[in-house]
């Protein structure tokens, strides 16, 4: 199990309650997995949705939404808010993905898989490949980069994996892995074709100068 218990504490305290869909995710889903391209209701699985910021987008576009989330507090919140319109399972997606092979058209995560040690990341990607349909898509948003200014903070527990980062959005959130491009290519090489790979860097100037941000977005198609 690699789910960081710190996330349960964060959600229980009312922190990290993102309420709106992430714009990068919306753009890449509509570009690469637009439901209008399918002749059936598109089944999507989100890994680590938090409190469900992306759910309204998927429901509005007619997707059949499923998710696995490690925080019991977050799961209860989503079930109360969205009811029978979604299926959410409480569990660690690096060890528990209880679906049969060839189930989903699309699997997504935003800043979730990156919050694990590498063996957990590998297990999640391997399992995702097995439950995606042939030609199914994996879209990962904001997998943190080794260029990220916080990638040298905290305690390194394995190459590029840190815990106890004391500052910024990573404070009190447990494990974070910072990826290289080569790591990403290696992770997806066996079971996927990488359709799109983006490296983002930016910093805020107004109202406050911040130290910056660096992460990857990836779109990968399951090999047949």
Tell me what the structure shows:
This protein has six helices and ten strands; from the N terminus they run H-H-E-H-E-H-E-E-H-E-E-E-E-H-E-E. The protein has 224 residues and is an alpha/beta fold. The chain has a single domain (6-222), classed as Vaccinia Virus protein VP39 (Rossmann fold). The chain has a seven-stranded mixed β-sheet with strand order 3-2-1-4-5-10-9, with helices on both faces. Helix 3 (55-60) links the parallel strand 1 and strand 2. The model has no long low-confidence stretch (mean pLDDT 92).
Overall shape: it is globular
Count of distinct strands: 10
Q: Helical percent range?
A: 25-40%
The CATH H-level homologous superfamily? Vaccinia Virus protein VP39
Distance between the termini: 30 Å
Spell out the helices and strands N to C.
Answer: HHEHEHEEHEEEEHEE
Strand count, sense and closure of the main sheet? 7 strands, mixed
Q: Round the Cα radius of gyration to an integer and report it.
A: 17 Å
Number of helices: 6
Mean pLDDT: 92
Which spans have pLDDT < 50 for at least 5 consecutive residues? none
Tell me the domain tally: 1
């Amino acid at each position: 199990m690699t789910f960081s218990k710190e996330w349960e504490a964060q959600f229980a305290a009312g922190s990290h309650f993102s309420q709106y869909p992430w714009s990068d995710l919306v753009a890449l889903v509509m570009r690469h997995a637009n439901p209008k391209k399918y002749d059936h209701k598109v089944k999507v699985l989100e890994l680590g949705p938090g409190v469900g910021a992306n759910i309204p987008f998927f429901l509005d576009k007619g997707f059949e939404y499923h998710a696995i989330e490690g925080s019991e507090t977050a799961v209860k919140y989503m079930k109360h808010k969205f009811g029978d319109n979604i299926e959410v399972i409480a569990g660690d997606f690096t060890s528990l993905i209880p679906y049969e092979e060839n189930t989903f058209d699309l699997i997504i995560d935003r800043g979730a898989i990156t919050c694990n040690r590498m063996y957990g990341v590998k297990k999640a990607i391997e399992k995702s490949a097995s439950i995606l349909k042939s030609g199914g898509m994996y879209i990962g948003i904001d997998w943190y980069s080794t260029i990220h200014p916080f990638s040298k903070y905290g305690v390194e527990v394995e190459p590029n994996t840190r815990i106890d980062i004391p500052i910024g959005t990573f404070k009190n959130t447990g494990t974070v892995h910072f990826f290289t491009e080569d790591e990403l290519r290696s992770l997806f090489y066996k079971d996927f074709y990488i359709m799109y790979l983006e490296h983002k860097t930016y910093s805020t100037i107004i109202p406050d100068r911040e130290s910056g941000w660096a992460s990857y977005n990836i779109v990968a198609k399951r090999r047949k």
